[in-house]
Design a protein that fits this description.
Elements (H helix, E strand, L loop, with lengths): L2 E6 L10 E4 L2 E6 L4 H25 L4 H6 L1
Parallel strand pairs: 1-3
Antiparallel strand pairs: 2-3
Length: 70
């Protein structure tokens, strides 16, 4: 499993970087303008990659289509 947790800039925990990964969880600070959308897109991409890798280990192969549908 992987989680993407998104915080508004004014509600983020003190000291949290705009993009942080802790094991399989990704933490993002999001607030317009567009620059912060990059962090959110990156977090979703990394989460998909982590899930694909986990599924590949469990079944010997990955199912990127199933992950994309999820």
């Amino acid at each position: 499993m992987a989680g993407v947790f998104v915080f508004a800039k004014n509600n983020a925990p003190a000291g949290l970087q705009p993009f942080t990964r802790i094991e399989h969880d990704l933490f993002v600070i999001w607030m317009p303008p567009i620059l912060y959308d990059i962090y959110l897109s990156a977090a979703v991409s990394v989460a998909k990659a982590l899930l694909f890798r986990q599924k590949a280990r469990n079944k010997g192969q990955g199912d990127i289509d199933g992950i994309e549908r999820a």
